[in-house]
């Protein structure tokens, strides 16, 4: 197990306390620097990433803490960022209609926190207006019901679809270009529509990275089957 920049939770607080930092529970640049100093003192490589050797040296690993848990969260957060709730991230009319449980696991909620921190909230902050999420988290059961891809980042809590059609604020293409030029996305998709306007925008952020920065356009062939190609301006 290892902790690194972007991680959050109880273990991060524990590490911070152990190396003499304020236990704020978020692994930011200050923690990276603190870990580097700590590693230097212990004769470990100064990576700023708290790997197993570092965690052992800090007394976090080795008896006191149990095996790696999949998540450092202990419960589902109600809010994912200043302006977004878990409720709107898991909302699905299909799930509601079919009585499908669409609650994420803790590790997926953790991924969502990173997605909202790095992508969704910055979009809202930039445009200063409500941003409509037409699809967020999809449990395996929901994905199956809508015929979505089982490997979709939506089922890991790493992706959202944004659709501003008929709403106040930026158009879908404005959102697309803002993300493309400014944010650290993993995958950005211009979903159907035409060359001027996508029907909606899909964007993902990979928990823990690295982010691929991949930009695709979704299209349909003459048989109506979806395919993807690199997006071109
Ligand atoms: Zn999507």
Q: Which labels suit this protein?
A:
two-stranded antiparallel ribbon; alpha+beta; 233 residues; 6-stranded mixed beta sheet; binds zinc ion
Could you explain the architecture of this structure?
With 233 residues, the protein is α+β, with helices and mostly antiparallel strands. The chain has 8 helices and 8 strands. It has helices at residues 10-18, 29-42, 52-57, 86-90, 93-98, 106-127, 140-146, 172-182; strands at residues 79-81, 84-85, 133-135, 159-162, 187-191, 200-204, 214-220, 226-230. It has a 6-stranded mixed beta sheet with strand order 3-4-6-5-7-8. Strand 5 (187-191) and strand 6 (200-204) form a beta hairpin. The longest helix is centred in the middle third of the chain and has 22 residues, at 106-127. The protein is elongated, with a radius of gyration of 20 Å. The relative contact order is 0.10.
Which structural class do the helices and strands define? alpha+beta
Strand order of the biggest β-sheet = 3-4-6-5-7-8
| Mean pLDDT, all residues | 92
How far is the first residue's CA from the last residue's CA? 41 Å
* Largest sheet report: 6 strands, mixed
Taken in chain order, the helices and strands follow as HHHEEHHHEHEHEEEE
Give the ligands present. zinc ion
DSSP strand count: 8
| CA-based shape | elongated
Task: Tally the helices.
Answer: 8
Q: Strand percentage, roughly?
A: 5-15%
Oligomeric state of this protein = single chain
- Uncertain regions: pLDDT < 50 for 5+ in a row? 63-68
Summed up:
Helices cover 34% and strands 15% of the residues.
List the helices and strands and how they pair.
Blueprint (H helix, E strand, L loop, with lengths): L9 H9 L10 H14 L9 H6 L21 E3 L2 E2 H5 L2 H6 L7 H22 L5 E3 L4 H7 L12 E4 L9 H11 L4 E5 L8 E5 L9 E7 L5 E5 L3
Parallel strand pairs: 5-7
Antiparallel strand pairs: 1-2, 3-4, 4-6, 5-6, 7-8
Bound molecules: zinc ion (ZN).
């Amino acid at each position: 197990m290892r902790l690194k920049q972007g991680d959050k939770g109880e273990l991060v607080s524990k590490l911070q306390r152990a190396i003499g930092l304020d236990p704020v529970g978020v692994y930011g640049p200050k923690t990276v620097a603190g870990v580097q100093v700590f590693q230097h003192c212990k004769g470990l490589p100064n990576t700023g990433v708290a790997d197993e050797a570092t965690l052992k040296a800090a007394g976090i690993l080795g008896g006191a803490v149990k095996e790696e848990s999949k998540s450092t969260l202990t419960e589902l957060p109600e809010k994912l960022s200043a302006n977004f709730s878990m409720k709107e991230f898991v909302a699905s009319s299909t799930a509601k209609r079919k009585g499908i449980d669409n609650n994420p696991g803790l590790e997926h909620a953790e991924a969502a926190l990173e997605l909202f921190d790095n992508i969704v909230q910055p979009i809202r902050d930039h445009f200063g207006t409500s941003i409509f999420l037409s699809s967020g988290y999809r449990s395996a059961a929901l994905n199956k019901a809508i015929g979505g891809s089982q490997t979709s980042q939506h089922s890991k809590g790493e992706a959202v679809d944004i659709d501003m059609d008929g709403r106040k604020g930026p158009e879908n293409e404005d959102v697309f270009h803002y993300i493309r030029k400014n944010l650290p996305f993993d995958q950005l998709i211009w979903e159907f529509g035409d060359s001027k306007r996508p029907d909606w925008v899909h964007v993902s952020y990979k928990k823990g990275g690295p982010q691929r920065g991949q930009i695709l356009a979704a299209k349909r062939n003459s048989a109506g089957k979806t395919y993807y190609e690199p997006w071109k301006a």
